[in-house]
Amino acid sequence: MPVEVVTLASGHERRNRRVAEMRRRYTLPGTTRPIEEAQLLASFFNSVDGQSQSFQFRDPIWNTTATVGQSMSMLDITLGTGDGSTSIFPWPTEGEFRRVLPEIATLEIAVDGNLTAPSAVIWNVEQRQLEFTDPPANGALVTCGCAFRVQVRFGTDALSISTTHNGAAMHEDVILQEVFE
Fold this sequence. Notes:
Helix content is about 5%, strand content about 35%. It is mainly β.
C-alpha cells in the first residue's frame, strides 16, 4: 500500500506516503482467445523475461497530450519560449507528461502556433528533448502534442495459459506495472 492512512480519535486523518511517485497498474483481463494470440502473448512474455525487462505500452485511456474530451493538438504542451539562440527544448520534467514516451510519428511541434516541418526538429530520445535546426525567434512560443506510451513491466514471472476443449486458449489476468527508468 503506497499511502498509509491513520484515523485519529478526533476523526482527523494523517496520511503517510511511502513511495515518491504513484505508479499506474494495468490489468489485461483473462479471457478466451485464439491459440495464435496466446502464443504471441507467451512469446512476448518470454522475450522480456517475465518481469525482468520493461517495455512500452499504450494506455488504452490516457495516451495523448490532449485535454480530456478534446483532440490532440500541436498546442497541448508548452515547452518554452524562444530567445533567438536556444535550439534545445527539453520535454517536461514535472507534471503529468514527465514520464511518458512520445510516439515520434505523431509528434506535432509548433512555433507561435505554426506547425513546424518535421525536418526542422530532431527528437533526441536519450536526452528527451527537441533540437531545432534553427532556433525559434525571440518571444516565440514552442508547443507540441503527440500520442505517447508509458514504460511498464509484467507484474509477475509466471504466465498461466491453458487450452480449451475447442482449441482456443485461456489466460489469467495479466498485470502490467508502470516503471520509472
